[in-house]
Write a structure and sequence with these properties.
iron; 699 residues; 17 helices; EC 1.11.1.6; alpha+beta; seven-stranded mixed sheet; ten-stranded antiparallel sheet
Amino acid sequence: MTEDRKERQRDMYRAPDPAEGPLTTDQGVAVDHTDDSLTVGERGPTLMEDFHFREKLTHFDHERIPERVVHARGAGAYGYFEPYESCAEFTRAAFLQDPSVRTPVFVRFSTVQGPRGSADTVRDVRGFATKFYTSEGNYDLVGNNMPVFFIQDGIKFPDFVHALKPEPQNDIPTGASAHDTLWDFVSLQPETMHMMMWLMSDRAIPRSYRMMQGFGVHTFRFVDAQGRGTFVKFHWKPKLGVHSLVWDEAQECQGRDPDFNRRDLWEAIEAGQYPEYELGVQLIPEEDEFNFDVDLLDATKIIPEEQVPVRPIGHMVLNRNPDNFFAETEQVAFHTANVVPGIDFTNDPLLQARNFSYLDTQLIRLGGPNFAQLPVNQPVTPARTNQRDGYHQSMIHKGTNYSPNSLGGGCPALAGADGYAFSHYAERVEGHKIRKRSESFKDFYSQAALFWNSMSDWERRHIVDAFRFELGKVGAVHVRERTVGQLAQVDYDLASQVAQGIGVALPEPGANNHKPQASPALSLDNLQGDGSIRTRQIAVLVMDGVDTGQLTQAQEALTAQGAIVEALAPHDGKVLGADGNGYAVDRALPTVASVLYDAVLLPGGPTGTPGLASDPDAMRFVRDAYRHGKPIAALGSGVGILSSLDPEGLHIASGHGHVCTDRGVVTDTTTGTASEEFTQAFTEAIAAHRHWDRPRVRC
């Protein structure tokens, strides 16, 4: 394992523990009193000469920097990246050459629309930005959890964000897309249709940042040592699979725990359950650029994996939380133009705009041109520039600051012709200066139809429900009607279901000629991950009389597989087990909810635990878990609690010693030990994440 150069660099900037010395001013002057201002007498005016008071208040007044216009709500972590093998055949990038070399990384996940104080689980795109601290300088892969974007040309970005953000007259809604201005824009801009299909799917409400894909969105270029280019699209794939929340529970999470995703990431890393992602690439030889139905420069399109498979080239592990949220997660500055030798751009008009916009944004947010000197943004390789002065200059420069020079010995000198320096890809370009979009960008609906065709039945139901909710919040009826008209160009059945739900007339069938194509790789059904139950949160509902032996056995079996098991009871403290001993409760039921867990276990006991059936919090917990498709297991008398819900048509164990599994519900009426068969069946149900073909409960 190689040394983590980024971690060593961070050590240089860590402030000492305050316990190691007295409180001082910013100038290092010791302070013996910080609770009262310097005044004229006990009740007199404060004196201007109280430098400690003035410094303390001034710093406090300036503690907040402007938040990001988009991606303001975020969470971050450090880690490392390792390639699987040398990628020299298509790129000269040094960090993609040697499997024994670990490249430090910092990753920031985020929502897009809401401010810093908004909730994690809103329906929104999620940012997935990775800063690689490579031996050749910083490389930023600034992407999202969806492989496409709303617009094709960056000149429309201000219009799109203005429409997406809270409406100007009342600053409503916060962190949400269900409002008039966004859908007005969308209904008038048909290039948004593909992205809107993704946004209305469950991809927009991820279960966890650890269970979320990432994409570079654009087509980039790899460049090898001989200067040959290869088009490339980047994919991050989580080892735990790609999983989402249900819209109903996502809304409840906003009240129960607005930091749901942020907390999940932090606690997993603190517990040593490090998130892992595989980096894959789609590679397209330059001579094949025009061999597709879509334009590779169009950021609203994908290349289906069935046409160009994703080639795994390395993996990333996030293993350290930041020491200070503001200094690191808030001040980290990503930029699509931060590239290293071997990685270059294409003429994607959205990417070209981002290459301008990101730098411009950092200058205003971080107070000037020296933001690269902040520890989280510093490269691990030495930075030698002739840039000087400016706001927040923290370096004490000596010598010359121009090039060429002789007084400074010609330093810093230009890199030699040995291939070390960055060299832009020599692409031939010519043409007139015009404002016109290529005709190859004009297909707005076929890939939206591809996405719809690729969804399973339950995913389609959720998409329809999402459109109905979002458009149901739109007050302008003509905007509803126009949007449904756009959906008719994608799929008439989809448009009809949405129209019926929002009370507008059925549209005329769209005059589309889409090919009946589908891409199985787009469905969450096919992105289950490694089949493990690592880090899944399992709630065990207990009360007095529980069989603690049976419970402990099941808990140990699940924990051994990496699951996190918590005992919940109607009250905090302990419950009295059937053996007369107390069993510690992790949380009281009134403080939590089913939406915060992935599965539920209902243990039994010799005297039974039917009291849970009369506890409204417990029964709501089980009922919600059931209707949200979550795995549920019941042992012994715990089966009776589940039966009290009267699930229509669900098979539940009735005979002694018989394990019954039906659509993610595992039951066994056996008292005493939890069998290996029971534990295995429950494990498989948890690994499947959700079970959408479940019948309804009658109660």
